[in-house]
Design goal:
single chain, about 525 residues, Alpha-Beta Plaits, 2 domains, 19 helices, 15 strands, about 60% helix, about 10% strand
Length: about 525
């Protein structure tokens, strides 16, 4: 046996060969569109169809990939999931569930009318809505290669339909006059800006900042105060004088409200942000003595003489409230006198290497908890008994544990780069295994049902887009930009979001996408399993 033959006989080598070829295919662009990671699925389908790879040795790798992929997705979506419910739960829930539920109902009705197998119907549903987690859940629950075959046929139509919608809807509606209001989604998601205010309100003059309790009325942070030629950090005992210039950080909508409390907004004073003796630094939380403590318990102004003006966690930047709990990797903007800022930064970043470390015990405990949840039977009235399986259980566990940040005394922290690697590695391993297994059925399915599956995929994708846009634009009265982002989020379509953001000079589509995406992600994963239970 030659070295090449020996290499191709090993499942790990075959899996990574598929991944390499799939990556090359996924990078190819046609009319500005590409398959991305789904290129791995199409290469695997081809190898399986021509019997160039054996599906059986790849199955354990596929199961391993499913678990890693959905668990990493849960860890990523967890914080957003909680914020979505707190900030705009009714709108996001209605749009996410309405879009997913409507598309599932139409796919099931048409699929039943055309007498398609349950696994094929669910595969088309997952492909039309471009949801790999739904594919993973359905494949694991049904143990049928037909799911991946139908997904592979439907996926291109799901991508094309939502991208065309995002590109042309602004032109069809001639850019509706409805305003784009990022702050309407969440002050935690809206971009943060700096503004200066001239203190003129008599109710603020002569009072220390600690007694004004501004944080109870608006979500902003006073960073610095300029008095004549002097600049002072915004310490708790600093007394405001008339005509002080106050530098404030917050979302635009929140800052506008602050004019009623302090005084008029004035042009930003450049010298406020660059004064000898006053430091403004980015520091990263790594010291375990700070992790798990809330902002109110830390008391940075009283204990350290500094102000934490903003926090960045993952891709979110926001103003921290008193109940905000610090976690490893949080990036803080700290303002104060230079020696005090240095002292605070030295203490909070004392264990710098931790920002690159994954807590393996907590990661493993969460994963085991997710698997136990996945194997637990769940009885749904009118549906029967289902199991969340290898896909659903770890997904829910990842969401819950990412939200709370710890399991008992174990802290869950996975650096963004490590989480991205885990997610992508799990995804391509799963796609390689599922594609090779489905490849043997590719020819017969296309020959017998190809036209029907294409029509079903196009109809499902079109209905999902229509439902998402009608709910957001017509029912809830959102702007065109917000409606485009919400629709793409309800279909978990990253290519669609890219097309939408290119049409608007605003962050509104992205903010709206983030609001509904976690809900839609979970809804698709659960809906795929419910469809299988009902249709089989």
């Amino acid at each position: 046996m030659s070295i090449v033959q020996a290499l191709l006989s090993h499942p790990v080598a075959v899996a990574f060969l598929i991944i390499v070829l799939g990556h090359l295919l996924g990078r190819a662009r046609v009319a500005g569109l590409s398959l991305g990671a789904s290129g791995v699925l199409f290469i695997a389908l081809a190898l399986g169809h021509f019997e160039l790879a054996d599906p059986q040795p790849l199955k354990p790798l596929g199961d391993f990939g499913v678990v890693l992929f959905v668990y990493a997705i849960g860890l990523q979506a967890g914080p957003h999931f909680a914020r979505t419910f707190r900030a705009q739960g009714r709108v996001a829930l209605a749009i996410g569930l309405g879009t997913v539920g409507g598309a599932a109902a139409l796919t099931a009705l048409l699929g039943g009318w055309w007498d398609l197998e349950a696994e094929v119907i669910v595969g088309v549903f997952a492909g039309a809505l471009t949801s790999t987690p739904a594919l993973a859940a359905a494949t694991e629950a049904s143990d049928s290669p037909l799911v991946a075959v139908a997904y592979g046929l439907a996926y291109p139509f799901g991508v094309v339909v939502v991208v065309l919608f995002a590109q042309f809807i602004p032109h069809w509606l001639k850019r509706s006059g409805r305003p784009d209001e990022p702050g309407a989604w969440s002050s935690t998601n809206a971009p943060l800006v700096q503004r200066c205010f001239l203190v003129e309100n008599p109710g603020c003059v002569g009072k220390p900042l600690s007694t004004l309790r501004l944080s109870e009325m608006v979500t902003v942070n006073i960073s610095r105060v300029m008095r004549g030629d002097e600049v002072h950090p915004a310490t708790a005992d600093l007394v405001l004088n008339r005509e002080d210039i106050v530098l404030v950080v917050g979302a635009q909508a929140q800052l506008t409200r602050l004019e009623l409390l302090l005084g008029p907004s004035i042009p930003l004073e450049a010298e406020v942000g660059n004064v000898p003796g006053i430091a403004s630094r980015e520091v990263t939380v790594t010291s375990l003595s700070f992790v798990g403590r809330s902002l109110s318990a830390l008391r940075p102004r009283a204990e350290y003489g500094v102000t934490i003006s903003r926090v960045r966690r993952e891709e979110l930047e926001f103003i921290p409230r008193g109940d905000y709990v610090f976690e490893v990797g949080d990036q803080l903007r700290v303002v104060g006198h230079a020696p005090e800022v240095d002292r605070f930064a030295e203490r909070i970043s004392a264990q710098g290497r931790r920002v690159y470390e994954t807590g393996i015990p907590a990661f493993a405990v969460g994963l085991v908890a997710g698997l136990l949840l996945g194997f637990t039977p769940i009885h749904l009235p009118g549906v029967g008994t289902i199991k969340l399986g290898l896909a659903g259980g770890p997904l829910f566990a990842g969401i819950v544990f990412a939200h709370f940040g710890r399991i008992g005394t174990l802290r869950i922290y996975v650096p963004p780069a490590a989480r991205y690697l885990i997610r992508e590695l799990g995804l391509v391993l799963f796609l390689a295994s599922a594609g090779v297994s489905a490849g043997a059925n590719l020819g017969p399915v296309i020959e017998e049902q190809g036209v029907v599956l294409v029509a079903l995929a196009a109809a499902s994708a079109a209905l999902a887009v229509a439902l998402g846009f009608i709910l957001s634009y017509v029912v809830f009265g959102m702007s065109v930009a917000a409606s485009a982002g919400l629709t793409c989020g309800a279909m978990t379509s990253t290519p669609g979001l890219g097309a939408a953001t290119a049409q608007f000079e605003t962050d509104t589509p992205t903010l709206a996408y983030v609001a509904v995406y976690p809900l839609a992600l979970v809804a698709m994963t659960v809906t795929a399993q419910i469809m299988l239970a009902v249709l089989q």
